[in-house]
């Protein structure tokens, strides 16, 4: 494999970083041997109104109980804003860069505090109380962070829905958590294109009669339909709202937010995160993984609609009093230099993005990068999917000019924060490896039977014990939480990822081993795409698998059996792709649709996905064991007509 390439920690980093090799080993060891001692020390980085009674109370057996810092009282918003006012009230908290390069805006900690308090008062005036769910469907504009923090301030549970999701997906997420209020904007802007968020919301709300209030941010100024008695403008409500609002006292285990994510079965799950452990863990990882130092300008390019944005644009950085950049646009607008122009414009020091973006930019050659300075950069990061060594090296050599370590951070919506990652002053880097566990994290690799493997090995990635930012349950469905993560391998948290560990103890994530696909770092359940397809009148049956894709990491490959009497055509192929896009959102648009007169099934009627994955990947010379196939000729037909060769 590629691990002959090792990039040692630069001398300067050994001296300057928060954590070096020695401290990493010492601290890691202590975090495992004495978790109570370790975490009670590190929890002091957060301001508590009242101290906790128990540091850790977790059990991966039986009913699954995960509790951290129980009895402790705090407020997440207070930790992100109020406590910074004395020291850095006039320091920038959020730098917002618009889709249009001529548009930007900054908020100091004091300004952000005032906006958040105002909006918290607006929410209260609308009757929102502690524990209520608030659905936020906004583009990457400052109001998104303001709305989240305002919810946290009054103890309401936010559920942010990515602006790229369709009205149906939004409706499902509103219904699942029974939100009565939705915050949206007239339109979103991405790469110069307008996204009709309010119109989407209107369509979603046809299915959500319980929602009686919609607050609309005027962003593009585009025409929208305002429903009398239901819809109100953000700016009008904010006009008279007072800029002071006392933070609600929350228990460490009170919910902070719900974020929906795809699994291998059924509809998306509402991953529930709570307050105390999440704040401790996201702020600690933000400081150590990115080696954040006072004054650094930090930019995570993720959308706040995903966990990365929650933990590493909003909560982690702001809890640390950081300057966090928030970007509305896309990497290729107005041109392929945009990321680096923004880096130069705002003098970004730490830059965190996804492998899919790196691969897309790499394709455009070095020139769009080289024509910018990037001298301010000191550290690079990636997240969301495995990074291929070629892309890693390009990122390192061309973007970072061999000067910036790369932290390849492995984690999940469920984990709340980064679990496996290099620390730039402590970890020698190997391109493509997420390297080692963070403090308090106990990964293991198991085989199919659930036995823990030692030394260099490969298998399934599990966690043996909890860490503070771990999800606590699936909102409203604890049973699903148990069966999804703890039943297959009892006593262990099953990540759904495959991994290899090398002789140096480095982890190499190989990707999902369940029916989840990772398209451009976005998680999608194959079952979701399948149910969208079969909802179309021309479709009798569908099976969806991931296939290798140069830029997206994985593409979506659908096998479709049409109802009898319907003839396949290019036109139908296009309209099916469009249909899925409308049902779920653009990220779910199939890359390939292959007509399948029948699907390969076992004699007991189970679809043999393993074979479908092989055909989609054009690996048809070795299909593995096909002895249980009911009708071998079905596979031959699929192979003959495969879309990728
Ligand atoms: O397969 C892993 C992949 O992304 C999945 C989690 O997706 P999501 O919950 O959407 O969160 C993404 C951002 C935290 C994981 O199960 N993944 C994430 N980071 C990496 C990764 N795969 C390889 N290397 C990574 N650094």
TrEMBL record:
Residues 24-80 form the Acetyl-coenzyme A synthetase N-terminal domain. The modification N6-acetyllysine is found at residue 606. It comes from the Bacteria. GO terms for molecular function: acetate-CoA ligase activity; AMP binding; ATP binding; metal ion binding. ATP binds at residues 384-386, 408-413, 497, 512, 523. Pfam families: ACAS_N (PF16177), AMP-binding (PF00501), AMP-binding_C (PF13193). Its cofactor is Mg(2+). It is an enzyme of class 6 (ligase). Its EC number is 6.2.1.1. One of its GO terms (cellular component) is cytosol. It catalyses: acetate + ATP + CoA = acetyl-CoA + AMP + diphosphate. Acetylated. Deacetylation by the SIR2-homolog deacetylase activates the enzyme. PROSITE patterns: AMP_BINDING. Residues 82-463 form the AMP-dependent synthetase/ligase domain. Keywords: Acetylation, ATP-binding, Ligase, Magnesium, Metal-binding, Nucleotide-binding. Residues 528-606 form the AMP-binding enzyme C-terminal domain. GO terms for biological process: acetyl-CoA biosynthetic process from acetate. Catalyzes the conversion of acetate into acetyl-CoA (AcCoA), an essential intermediate at the junction of anabolic and catabolic pathways. AcsA undergoes a two-step reaction. In the first half reaction, AcsA combines acetate with ATP to form acetyl-adenylate (AcAMP) intermediate. In the second half reaction, it can then transfer the acetyl group from AcAMP to the sulfhydryl group of CoA, forming the product AcCoA. Belongs to the ATP-dependent AMP-binding enzyme family. HAMAP family: Ac_CoA_synth (MF_01123). This is Acetyl-coenzyme A synthetase.
């Amino acid at each position: 494999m590629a691990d002959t390439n090792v990039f040692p920690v630069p001398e300067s980093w050994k001296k300057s970083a928060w954590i070096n090799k020695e401290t990493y080993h010492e601290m890691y060891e202590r975090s495992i041997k004495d978790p109570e001692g370790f975490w009670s020390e590190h929890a002091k980085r957060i301001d508590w109104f009242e101290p906790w009674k128990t540091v850790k109370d977790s059990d991966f057996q039986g009913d699954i109980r995960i509790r951290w810092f129980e009895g402790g009282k705090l407020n997440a918003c207070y930790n992100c804003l109020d406590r910074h006012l004395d020291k850095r009230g006039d320091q920038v908290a959020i730098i917002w860069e618009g889709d249009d390069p001529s548009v930007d805006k900054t908020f100091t900690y004091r300004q952000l505090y005032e906006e958040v308090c105002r909006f918290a008062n607006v929410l209260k005036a609308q009757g929102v109380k502690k524990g209520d769910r608030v659905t936020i469907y906004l583009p990457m504009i400052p109001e998104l962070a303001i709305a989240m923090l305002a919810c946290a301030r009054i103890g309401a549970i936010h559920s942010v829905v990515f602006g790229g999701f369709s009205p149906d997906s939004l409706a499902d997420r509103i219904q699942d958590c029974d939100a009565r209020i939705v915050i949206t904007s007239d339109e979103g802007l991405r790469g110069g294109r307008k996204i009709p968020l309010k119109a989407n919301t209107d369509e979603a709300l046809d299915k959500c009669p319980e929602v009686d209030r919609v607050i609309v941010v005027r962003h593009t100024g585009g025409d929208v339909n305002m429903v009398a008695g239901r819809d109100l403008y953000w700016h009008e409500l904010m006009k008279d709202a007072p800029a002071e609002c006392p933070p609600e006292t929350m228990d460490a285990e009170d919910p902070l937010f719900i974020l929906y994510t795809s699994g291998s079965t059924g509809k998306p799950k509402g991953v529930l995160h709570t307050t105390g452990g999440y704040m401790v863990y996201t702020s600690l990882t933000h400081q150590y993984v990115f080696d954040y130092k006072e004054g650094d300008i930090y930019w995570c390019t993720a959308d706040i609609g995903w966990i990365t944005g929650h933990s590493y644009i909003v909560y982690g950085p702001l809890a640390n009093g950081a300057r966090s950049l928030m970007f509305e646009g896309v990497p290729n607008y107005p041109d392929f230099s945009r990321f680096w122009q923004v880096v130069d414009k705002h003098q970004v020091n730490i830059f965190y993005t996804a492998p899919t973006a790196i691969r897309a930019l790499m394709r455009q050659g070095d020139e769009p990068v080289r024509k910018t300075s990037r001298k301010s950069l000191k550290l690079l990061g990636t997240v969301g999917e495995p990074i291929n060594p070629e892309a890693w090296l390009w990122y390192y050599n061309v973007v970072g000019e061999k000067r910036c370590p790369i932290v390849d951070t492995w984690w999940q919506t469920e984990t709340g924060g980064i679990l496996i990652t290099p620390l730039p002053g402590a970890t020698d880097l190997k391109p493509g490896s997420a390297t080692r566990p963070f403090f308090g994290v106990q990964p293991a690799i198991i085989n199919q039977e659930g036995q823990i493997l030692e030394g260099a090995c490969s298998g399934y990635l599990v966690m043996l014990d909890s860490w503070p930012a771990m999800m606590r349950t699936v909102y409203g469905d604890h049973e699903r939480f148990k069966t999804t993560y703890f039943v297959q391998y009892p006593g262990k948290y099953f990540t759904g990822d495959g991994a290899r560990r090398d002789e140096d103890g480095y982890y190499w994530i190989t990707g999902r081993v369940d029916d989840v696909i990772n398209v451009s770092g976005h998680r999608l359940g194959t079952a979701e795409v399948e149910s969208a397809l079969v909802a179309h009148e021309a479709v009798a049956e569908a099976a969806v698998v991931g296939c290798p894709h140069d830029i997206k990491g994985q593409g979506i490959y659908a096998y479709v059996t049409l109802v009898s009497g319907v003839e396949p055509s290019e036109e139908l192929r296009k309209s099916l792709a469009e249909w899925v896009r409308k049902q779920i959102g653009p990220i779910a648009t199939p890359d390939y649709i292959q007509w399948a007169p029948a699907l390969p099934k076992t004699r007991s009627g189970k679809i043999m996905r393993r074979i479908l994955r092989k055909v989609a990947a054009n690996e048809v010379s070795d299909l593995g064991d096909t002895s249980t196939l009911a009708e071998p000729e079905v596979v031959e037909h699929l192979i003959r007509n495969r879309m990728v060769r």
